[in-house]
Amino acid sequence: MDKAHSVSQASRVNLPELLSRVDNDRELLLDLLTIFKEEFPRLLQTLHDAVALQDMKQTSVVSHTLKGMLLNMAIPRAATAAALLERLAQEETKTSVPEAFAAFEMEVQGLLPEMESCMGEVAR
Amino acid sequence: MRILVADDEHLSRRLLERTLERAGYEVMAVENGRLAVEQLNRPDGPRLALLDWVMPELDGPGVCRAVRRQQEQREQSYVYIVLLTSKESKEDIVTGLESGADDYLTKPFDVDELKARLRTGERILHLEGRLVEAREMMRFKATHDALTSIWNRGVIVDLLGRELARSQRESGCTIVLLGDIDHFKSINDTHGHLVGDEVLKEIARRLLLSIRSYDFVGRYGGEEFLMVLNNCNPQSVEARAEEFRKVVNSQPIQTAIGTVQVSMSLGVLLSSDWGVRPVEELLYEVDAALYAAKAAGRNCVRMAKPSADVRLAIKETVQRLR
After folding, report:
1. Does the distance separating the beta carbons of B22 and A25 come in below 8 Å?
2. Nearest-angstrom CA–CA distance, B8 and A61
3. Would you call B223 a catalytic residue per the annotation?
4. H-state helical runs in B23-110
5. How high is the pLDDT of residue A12?
6. Verdict on whether the full-model pTM lies above 0.90
7. ipTM, 2 dp
8. For B2-143, which CATH superfamily applies?
């Protein structure tokens, strides 16, 4: 688990890539990081509840939204995990969904503090 | 240029909004498909749109279908639509384009690619604008007199036919006036055709200013003008005809060679006096009244009145219909 965690850590928030995506607009990047910080925990909780209730439609919708956010923030591994969750929910593969959700949770673990430190760097 | 961005995801919406503002667009951002349709279907709505595929209430392809449907029904300006999607399968792309999207872009988008694709959209909209302008110009030329810019003969006769049918349906009354400029040939012969053209233009302008917004005036022939006044009070017919005569005659016309005094003879008829008659017959009758005005010394008005036989026939028809 530690190994998996360290692999995911290595591929997360890529500040130079993010800055290049926003054309070095630091103010915009700060806006985006703030939106992410506010919305991500809420969406993650909604996804958690949907998976627990085996609500495949809601699981698919929320994982799609999370996938989009993560792609925009240049966090590809977590976005791939969200995409897998979305596909499984669309296919109504109920048995595999909790496992895919656990993998996704692992990918995004510790992401928010990382975002905060990123915000500090951008604001400097 | 204004652009609509529709995306339910706040972060993506903000990113697009700012990126497009920096590229010089005036951005309008909405968070679902229903709001996107509302904005795009407004006559003054944005003509360029960037839509997320997956949205609540109505998805991107649903918005495309709604916008295209409205365009067909109301002949509205074209909206260039780019779908933004994380779907990449061929089937999805085909579905998106079949729904009426012009282009698609996969998420996360590359800023330069986004700008380039929107520029393509702008080029197409610009071309569409020029085509619409050309079509409108052709439509105007096909329906208006080239010299005076009032309705041409074909259209004014058609409008007369429609108004007569309507007033018969609604038991109303239409006044038909046919005016002819007196001694117009001598104006041309004395001052030249350019002055004659100036006179025609000025008279058309005066007649146009003398009618209500729902009446019509057209150039019927060389120096003949046909006026169709809808939903009129039959008692006012002579006074209205006199107004037209005076508006031509009261002020001399300023031309390149100085002022020219002009008068007009008019024939006039009331549709309610004639029962159900073909347009051609009524035009014949009002033309005869015009010639009666010419014969009476010009610069006057003569009414077309049905003969006693015609009046009797109309009365019998009306009674039968009751």
Report:
1. yes
2. 11
3. yes
4. 33-40, 60-74, 90-98
5. 76
6. no
7. 0.84
8. Response regulator (3.40.50.2300)
